């Protein structure tokens, strides 16, 4: 999991002010843009957002959807990409496609690239399934699975050299090939993802994704993040 990466590509620079402006326009007689020079500070706007929109579980999340953040997520297994797209998360994704990109798999087959840069296997350790049944993933099992990844990469290489397309050759590789993607959230949909995937019984790799996203969320909308951490983070609440 040490290879996983989350980097911010772009984000609304004054998100709490924008959310406040949206909220303020709901009940303001005036044209809010004309008051821009007198808008409250980012910190003050954050405090008001928490008090008027979030406290007491009011559930008034509409204004929070006006601000956005875009992440580049890298080296995660395919299963993580699948998981975070489910349950009406309200996100937009562009995912590295196996129809066009496969050179890294061929390079792994040739020994030019580390096989674990291309395929993901969990570390050796103690795990449990969704029903709480505990099991051990041993070094012997992991080496066996790593050898299978190598064999699959070599088979992929043969298919490509025989003229098969990438979209056909990808059908024989292990499920958890690593993928990079761009994903965009608004502030509400990001909280929705954290509700679903940061909780203790979520897939471990999804929890790791959320752990890497979380500091960026705190830096971006600090007052909202502080409220969220106290009232919702890892509590498995129904998503907003």
Give the helices and strands, then pairings.
Layout: E1 5-11, H1 15-27, H2 42-54, E2 68-77, H3 78-84, E3 92-95, H4 103-109, H5 115-118, E4 125-128, E5 134-137, H6 139-161, H7 166-169, E6 178-186, H8 187-197, H9 204-220, H10 222-231
Antiparallel strand pairs: 1-2, 2-6, 3-6, 4-5
Calculate the mean pLDDT score and round it. Answer: 94
Low-confidence stretches: none
Strand order of the largest sheet: 1-2-6-3
In the CATH scheme, the class of the largest domain would be Alpha Beta
| Beta strand % | 15-25%
* Total number of strands: 6
> Which structural class should the secondary elements be placed in?
alpha+beta
Number of domains: 2
Query: How would you sum up the major sheet?
Result: 4 strands, antiparallel
CATH architecture of the largest domain: 2-Layer Sandwich
User: How many whole angstroms does the radius of gyration measure?
Assistant: 22 Å
The shape, in one word, is elongated
Q: What's the CATH topology label of the largest domain?
A: Gyrase A, domain 2
Written as H for each helix and E for each strand, in order along the chain, the element string is: EHHEHEHHEEHHEHHH
Calculate the terminal CA-CA distance, rounded to whole Å: 29 Å
The helicity comes to: 40-55%
In short:
The protein is of the alpha+beta class. The chain has ten helices and six strands; from the N terminus they run βααβαβααββααβααα. The chain folds into two domains: 5-74 and 82-91 and 179-231, Gyrase A, domain 2; 99-177, no CATH class.
């Amino acid at each position: 999991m040490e290879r996983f990466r989350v980097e911010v590509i772009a984000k609304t620079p004054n998100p709490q002010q924008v959310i406040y402006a949206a909220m303020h326009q709901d009940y303001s007689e005036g044209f809010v843009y004309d008051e821009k020079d007198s808008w409250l500070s980012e910190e003050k706007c954050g405090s008001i957002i928490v008090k008027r929109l979030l406290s007491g579980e009011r559930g008034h999340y509409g204004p929070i959807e006006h601000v956005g953040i875009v992440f580049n997520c890298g080296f995660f297994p395919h299963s993580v990409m699948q998981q975070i797209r489910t349950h009406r998360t309200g996100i937009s994704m562009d995912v590295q496609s196996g129809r066009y990109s496969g050179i890294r798999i061929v390079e792994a087959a040739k020994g030019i690239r580390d096989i674990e840069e291309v395929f993901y296997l969990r570390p050796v350790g103690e795990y449990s399934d969704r029903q709480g049944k505990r099991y051990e993933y041993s070094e012997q099992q992991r080496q066996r699975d790593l050898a299978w990844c190598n064999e699959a990469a070599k088979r992929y290489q043969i298919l490509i050299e025989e003229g098969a397309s990438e979209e056909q050759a990808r059908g024989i590789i292990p499920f958890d090939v690593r993928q990079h993607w761009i994903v965009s959230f608004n502030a509400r949909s990001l909280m929705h993802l954290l509700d679903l995937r940061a909780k203790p019984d979520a897939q471990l790799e999804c929890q790791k994704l959320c752990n890497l996203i979380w500091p960026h969320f705190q830096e971006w909308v600090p007052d909202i993040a502080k409220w969220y951490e106290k009232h919702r983070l890892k509590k498995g609440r129904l998503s907003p």
